[in-house]
Amino acid sequence: MHPILSKSTYLYGLQCIKRLYLYKKHYHLANPIDETNQAVFQTGTDVGELAQSLFPNGVNAQGDEPYHSEKTAKQTAALLANHDVIYEAAFIYNDVICAVDILVRKNNTYYAFEVKSTTKLKPQHIEDAALQYYVLSNAGIDLADFSIVVLNNEYVRQGNLNLDALFNPISVLKFLDDKQVFIAENISRLKKVVWLKSIPEVEMGGHCNSPYECSFTQYCLSQSPQELVEEIELDNAINVNKEAWVEFSDELQYPLHFFDFESISYALPEFDNSRPYQQIVFQYSLHIQKKAKSNFIHKAFLGDGVKDPRLALIKQMIKDLGKKGSIVVWNISFEKTVISKLAIDFPEYADELLALNERMVDLMNPFRPNRKIVLSEAFQGSFSLKAVLPIVAPELSYANLNIQEGGTASFKYGQLKEMNELEKTQVRQDLLDYCHLDTLAMLKVWEKINELV
Ligand code: SF4
Fold first, then answer.
1. Is the domain of 136 the same as that of 49?
2. 22 close to ligand 1 (CB < 6 Angstrom)
3. Residue 229 in this model has a pLDDT that exceeds 60
4. Which among 288, 289, 315, 285 has a CA at the least distance from the CA of 301?
């Protein structure tokens, strides 16, 4: 018989029965899949495929099928006769189909491995494993162990990836037994949901983003009764506590260096001397102003999207930032952490790098509401540059840029190596424009508040 639930739909049902129902019966109502979602899926696939090499010479039971189906389950059963390592090994029990990423047989006992592209074991991984254990055990697979394979974030790549060091299998068998009785109950509850005649009513709440972001949020939002929001006219007036601002600005020393990094994190360390998910800086923008109200000069660095950008970036950054004058950033902890990390990974530059951290000043601080230095009702409690800029320097705007926030910048940078020359030229320009505006915005905000004072 055709399975009613899969591992994914079972987990959707645990999160929210409405999600399960919508997925099964009204899939067309799902949020559109954007490029960033696709990149996340692709990361999962890449990590899963690489982990298969931990157990070489296996056969893939899924073949060219896009989904696990009864066909994959039949194929698995056939392969078990002659193969000890099976990838995507699918089983059906109690109308539920599950495929385990890697199934290994040694001396007639089985070991299951489920690969996750995270660096930590999470509670939802246990739910996932518990369902697989239930299906596999009841389908006659005698499991001696069940492991979740995560990435080891302490692994530092040197040369080819060392898979034994990169992957960290964690046995979760001890957690699975206790969960079995609930699984049978959950399955029968969730099957009844699938048989419902209409969409179950569930209000939106914290569960919509936990443990995963639901793919039907746009639909549910469109169905929620809209509260009547009165258009409140926000007061754009900017109130500056002059004394406190002067005290803050006295800390800054010319030449001022308005500075901002962009970074990318690769699940699988792309370069030597890097770890899974490490933030790799690939770009910066720098506006330098030698004295108050003087003209400024702009400098920038952007990696090529292929080679490790860090060493070239370090060398140019040290030169561009010189030896004196404040380095003005927005949200100091990110820039300081990145520089400290670079100092560890490139110890020959550690002294010069750490000296940059000593000169750093956070322009965001005076905008924190609790500091009461620069306040405006129109900031709406936020102190991000994107919230402050339209009020303080409305002549500058991100709205016309092709890249408008950091997440898109890293995604686009990650895509550069796949692009043709024309696309590459455009995206490089978009990246330069975006980062340029970040530091120009800081400079303008600084000047505007000084003018007010
Ligand atoms: S958006 Fe929230 S309420 Fe709607 S289906 Fe998803 S989890 Fe359920």
1. yes
2. yes
3. no
4. 285
What rounded mean pLDDT belongs to the chain? 94
CB 373 near ligand 1, within 6 Å: no
**350 assigned to some structural domain:** yes
Whether 155 and 81 share a structural domain: yes
pLDDT of residue 187: 96
In sequence order, the β-bridge partners of residue 150 are 168
Cα(207) to centroid(ligand 1), Å = 7
Q: What is the pLDDT of residues 235-254, one digit of tens each?
A: 889 999 999 999 999 999 99
Q: Is 208 touching ligand 1 by the criterion CB < 6 Å?
A: yes
CATH assignment at residue 280:
3.30.420.10
In this prediction the pTM is 0.87
Torsion sign, CA atoms 432, 435, 439, 444:
positive
- For ligand 1, whether the C-beta of 24 sits within 6 Å is no
Query: Do both 18 and 70 map to the same domain?
Result: yes
Distance 15 CA to ligand 1 centre (A): 8
- Who contacts 377 (Cβ-Cβ below 8 Å, separation ≥6)? 234, 235, 236, 237
Looking at the structure of the chain, the number of domains it has is 2
State the residue range of the domain holding 403: 239-452
With a 6 Å cutoff on the Cβ, whether 19 touches ligand 1 is yes
| CA pair distance 316, 302, nearest whole angstrom | 11
> For the residues 308-322, what does the mean pLDDT come to?
98
